[in-house]
Amino acid sequence: MHTARNTVTRRFVQTFAQHTQRENITNQMIIRSSSASTNTRNKIPFYGLPRPEKQPENNDTIPPPLKRVVVAATSAVTALVNPERADAVAALGEVTGTISLQQMYDRMMQDSTGQTILRDKPKVDGASINLDVLLETSGSGSFGEAYAKFMMQHGFDPEERSAVRYIADPELAYVMLRYRQSHDFWHVLCDLPPTVLGELALKWVELVQTGLPVAALSATFGPLQLSANDRDALRTIYLPWALRVGQRAPFLMNVYYEELFRENLDDLRERLMMEPAPKIRS
Known about the structure:
The chain is mainly α. The protein has helices at residues 2-32, 34-42, 65-81, 86-96, 98-109, 112-120, 131-137, 143-153, 170-181, 183-190, 196-210, 213-221, 228-248, 265-272.
């Protein structure tokens, strides 16, 4: 058993070291052509005003290329051994996600609501969302009521999502943060519980939607934690559902969830083509 796990771990580290090296080459190309990239972005209207140039934030935490490989490998092994280490999963997502995050940013810039989100940069935290107030004011059967009940039932706090540490570009850093903070919204829309099986089903939706390597990682290695019955359910029931929902739904990063709290949950699911996940007997 230990030999098999060590073999999986070695292959896992080698694969992600190679992936991160490709990411580093891409990052260097992006840096060398930063002025051209900025000009390309500014060609897209952003409420009639050019985007001001922004300097990278928290430069002291941005690892150089070689350290990115080490961070990716270390985080990958840690996340594989202990999936509850959210810090390792977060670091892995950041150092391997540059290409996907750029594509996500571009898709948001091509959508009017996505542009609004990038302009406003809403954050899901205690300052912006009071769960008690949301539960009282959203209305019966609303998306906001369902979200508040989901968070309170499971003891979740909007403040729990990790801050972004390893992404230099502030726009891409926000895209990563928004992705993380939208996760619980997607749980509600998909009607998925925060169990291992529920999380893996949602990761497949996220993978189809975003292409983020960390979602692919979770979807690939996460089933090792499941029982044989749950692995079979994931493969035969939840995977087909996730692929269907991920492909049919509009780009979920372009949804301003905070403005939809009063909307009827069933109506919102229908509009976003978010078919609730199948229910199976435990």
